[in-house]
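Team,

Forwarding the record for the chain on the shared tracking sheet. I've put the sequence and predicted structure together so nobody has to dig through attachments.
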Amino acid sequence: MNNSYMPVMAFVAIGLFGLLRAEDWTQWRGSNRDLIVTEQNLLKEWPAGGPQRLWKIDLPGEGYSVPIVVGDTIYITGSVGGKNDRAGHLYALDTKDGSLRWELEYAPEWASSYNFARTSPTFRDGKLFLIGGLGHVVCVEAKDGKIIWKLDAHEHFGGRNITWGIADNPLVYDNKVICQPGGNDAAVVALDVNTGKTVWKSVGLSERSAYCSPALLTIGGRRQVVTMLEDHAVGLDAETGQPLWKHAHRNKHAVHPNTPVLCGTDLLFMSSGYNYGSEIIFISDKDVKQLWSDKTSDNHFQGVAFHEGRIFSSGGGKLFCIDPKNGNTVYTVDGARKTSFCITSSGMITYDAVGGSVMLVQVGENNYKVVSSFKVDYGNGEHWSSPVVANGVMYLRRGKGLAAHKISAH
């Protein structure tokens, strides 16, 4: 296809609800699903008390999920209702002031312990994809919030829920949306983005989900869906769903809410909490070999990134910078205890679950410097949402509370 047609196609794809920009944040962990923000011209330091707050709102629903940003629209999930009767809602907000454009009740939601909405929508080609805590997969028109199709994946594939509800954020590629119902021969499933019909199932793999959001990675020249299930980390052929390899990886609760991160052409970093710790495995076709493991960098669910030859992972009450070659800790960041983060051109932005501290940290290969900090003093519940940066604005969420801070340098 002639590249000269691409700008026109971008306008057509987005339609009436805003122009997709390179600086958008279109899914959980960012548009490239790696926690790396490529946007330039961001503030190198913040004023005392934090960067300028553009607006703050209380959402109708509560959530641990992060917002995504497409053009001039924010999409974010929340759940409402009583302790034993929760409904998941999707909200479309204006980036200028946080005002509500439309609202959709997409499915019943997790109503037991920690009953806020768990997962974030994924945007692709004018559609939004959601996975609810009870296993419903939903496709929505981004411009008006109308449901295109909905599937109860647990019922359809004989799936089984888990202790704290399904929490994987949808992976979308090549007209496929990936979910993990944990059914017989259907631990992982690909659905058609337009119809919800089954494209492939992971035949031979029947483990339950384990809170892990899958990644699309190229390992040894082969595209794979990589995730952590109940008992194993696995790689599946991206086109067919055929299991390619698996590696034993289970902590005492089978809780693995961190996406595996590629640290080279065939090296995969994984970390799970509950004293399991971290490891790197070497993958060669179907052969898997553990290169090292370390129990001190024990990441519960705060996320992992690979940046300029270093692994950054939060666990055991510390934010670690790790040498992927040997697992050695290069340094830990003071003041970052149980922190989610993203990495920008101006430094790492951390959001700590303990007390709600937000920091801007310059992270180098062998050292770091805390530049600025402030605290999130709004919202309710735990500080479990990750910071989001899009189009010169940082978005921070706590329960019902959502605020936008200007971090553009111009």
